[in-house]
Amino acid sequence: MTTPDLPLVEAAQLALISGSAVEELQVLLERCEDFEVLVTGHPPGPYAAEALLTDAPPDHPLRDKFVIGAWTDRGLTATVELLRDFPERHVWYLGLLLVAPEARGQRLGERILAAVKSWIISQNGRAVRLIVQDQNPAALRFWLAQGFVQIGTATQDLMDRTNQVARLELKL
């Protein structure tokens, strides 16, 4: 399956993260350590960017994983992680939408999500799913305002932390 060009976002350029952009991604993850601490209890490690690019569920092909960066006049300002056909065909899983602290509250996340949704539709996607940790009520408000609906709850087991999460879905 080919990957079409990513859509345009006002005041940002979207591109798949690879090569030298991995270093920029690591810097972004470190600038956004508040999110990582909230979810895992720890700041991002020195190889967090590499892990983001290569970690996938067992038996899920890495070719169906996309880590997209959003570059603004401030450099790499946001990233989104997607899995195609997960957990089932025509459903995409959004594992992360992370916006740099200085760019939050400026609707960049909304613009990126709108572009990503149109891109997913062009890839025959019919729904997007994600989870939100209970300790992140601002994220839950954001996703619900974007049209996602809660479809259940679950437990997220991390290395040394267990989170209760809301499972959300948006039909496309």
Would you write up a description of this structure?
The protein is α+β, with helices and mostly antiparallel strands. Helix content is 29%, strand content 33%. The protein is built from 5 helices and 7 strands, in the order E-H-H-H-E-E-E-H-E-H-E-E. It has a 7-stranded mixed β-sheet with strand order 1-2-3-4-5-7-6, sandwiched between helices. A hairpin with a 7-residue loop joins strand 3 and strand 4. Helix 1 crosses helix 3. The longest helix has 15 residues. The chain is globular, with a radius of gyration of 15 Å. The chain starts with 12 loop residues before the first strand and ends with a strand. The mean pLDDT is 94.
Helix content: 25-40%
In terms of structural class, how would the helical and strand content be classed? alpha+beta
User: Largest beta sheet, briefly?
Assistant: 7 strands, mixed
Name the poorly predicted regions. none
Specify Rg, calculated over alpha carbons: 15 Å
Would you count the extended β strands for me?
A: 7
Number of helices: 5
The CA-CA distance between the termini, in Å, is 20 Å
**Can you tell me the overall shape?**
globular
Tell me the strand percentage band.
25-35%
| Major sheet strand order | 1-2-3-4-5-7-6
Q: Can you write the helix and strand succession as a string? A: EHHHEEEHEHEE
Mean pLDDT: 94
Describe the structure concisely.
The protein has 172 residues and is of the alpha+beta class.
